[in-house]
Amino acid sequence: MNDEVTEYPSAGVRTIAAASLWAAEQYGGRPALVCGGRRLSFSDYLGYARRAARGLIAAGVRPGDRVAIWAPNSIEFAVLALAIQLSGAALVPVNTRYTPREAADILARSGALLVFTVEQFLGRSYAEELRALCGEASGLLPQLPRIVDIDAPDSPGLHAFLAGGGAVLEGELDERIRRITPDDIATVLFTSGTTGQPKGAMLRHGALVRAYWNWGSLLGVRPGDRVLLSNPFFHAFGLKVGLLLSLLHGAAAYPMPVFDAEAALDIIERERISFYPAPPTVFQSLLAHPSLPGRDLASLRIAVTGATSVPPQLIYDMYDVFGFGQVFSPYGFTEGTGVATLTRQGDDRDTVASTAGKAVPGVEVVVLTEDGSKAAPGETGEIALRGYNLMAGYLGRDEAFLDAQGYLRSGDLGVLDERGYLKVTGRIKDMYIVGGFNVYPAEVEAVLQAHPGVLAAAVTGVPDERLGEVGLACVVRRDAGVSEAELAEWCRDRMANFKRPSSIRFVDALPLNASGKVIKDELVALAGES
């Protein structure tokens, strides 16, 4: 297959807001969102989102403002995300695994005026946790954004919020939509830097629409496809590859609040799911489920998997056990709108298992040597991008993010072969990926070293069969009485679960080089000796 993609049907459709109007007209009564027995057509989806957008205007949200969602996958999440963008504001998704302190930090940094959240999820009250942090006493969230609970369609907070929009004329919303440009910010996705300081990557309407129209075309997604979305919507994979791509291509999205292997298999079988984008851990869980052999999975046609190292055998099993017609392997990162490379229809399974594909149309992917020159085929260097897909910058930061040649450096190591196919070989910045989520050692080390009984700590990622990688922490104790259980509890109160080290080893000293920097390559051996 060549790299040409279908031209977007209308020259005027260059924002997410305009795309939603086009999709409602184009796909109308086709199912757009299906969850928990509820089904919304594309027309219903837009109508609900317009009501919510009028509610945002009534609440004082202006173009360019930020509005956050801290909630699990649901129809309401999808509708409100679109509503925020219809109003001219920017969506700020917040990781549902974050502790209250971590969430409050994102809300404070983004300056969100309003947050949609839930009263109950996984035994926690997110709304109550935020209220408890508000005020001068904690200093974490001096000014609490307005909180709207969205646990259910009939939640009192959501009902009152929607009712408030009744005072806003449809024409006022239409004018808001008309004024949105492709260069306006649609989404701010926070991603940690090497220091652990969260940075908000500002992603533009035009880049997002182009990127995920192209992606869907390359994948072969078509109107009427049914997409299972167990990837969380706070993540680019779930939000963009899931919701946005489905909207653009007329596919029905099936959000799952929490991944459960048996529930996922039930939905695939009952609803005839045809497209499943998910990290390797999800497919490994499905393969291990005892009911898999008796399932009818004949509807499955397309899979996308990545976000961590993918065992080749898993790719083979996705073809042979699940029966996918085509499996795709991608590479991308938040600052590049999530897209860079992708394998292609017709690529053999070995190519899918061993590479992340080649550059998508309109995006230049290069591997640079230490002196900034392009690496030869087969030569390792830093992966860098240039093209329409690059972010507008980091929210609230003036720092330069492009090099002198206009490339966005990834911090990842990779190799391009003679065909232009990319293989990711490592991470310069020591970041590792746990079940599809990026973890930065400096952030984990800072939490460990804040414990009064810890003198020093160093963290690295180690291979894990189920999650791809997990964290290993080597700790030098200040107080010999500090236990592994005590530090695990300390981390549990201060970090999302995917960030917490899977194992903690006590050592007499950390391996340091002449500059006093920890030699990360020696940590695993050191931990084995402890």
From TrEMBL:
> Domain AMP-binding enzyme C-terminal spans what residues?
443-517
Task: Give the source species.
Answer: Arthrobacter mobilis
Which PANTHER family does UniProt cross-reference here? Answer: ACYL-COA SYNTHETASE, MEDIUM-CHAIN ACYL-COA LIGASE ACSF2, MITOCHONDRIAL
Biological-process GO terms, alphabetical: fatty acid metabolic process
User: InterPro entries from the xrefs?
Assistant: AMP-bd_C (IPR025110), AMP-bd_C_sf (IPR045851), AMP-binding_CS (IPR020845), AMP-dep_synth/lig_dom (IPR000873), ANL_N_sf (IPR042099)
Question: Is Lipid biosynthesis included in the keywords of this UniProt record?
Answer: no
Q: What is the top-level taxon of the source organism?
A: Bacteria
Name by which UniProt lists this protein: AMP-binding protein
* Gene3D superfamilies for this protein: 3.30.300.30, N-terminal domain of ligase-like
**What Pfam families does the database record attribute to this sequence?**
AMP-binding (PF00501), AMP-binding_C (PF13193)
Ordered alphabetically, the record's keywords are: Ligase
Recorded GO molecular functions are: medium-chain fatty acid-CoA ligase activity
Tell me which residues make up the AMP-dependent synthetase/ligase domain: 22-395
* Keyword flag Ligase: yes
Family assignment?
A: Belongs to the ATP-dependent AMP-binding enzyme family.
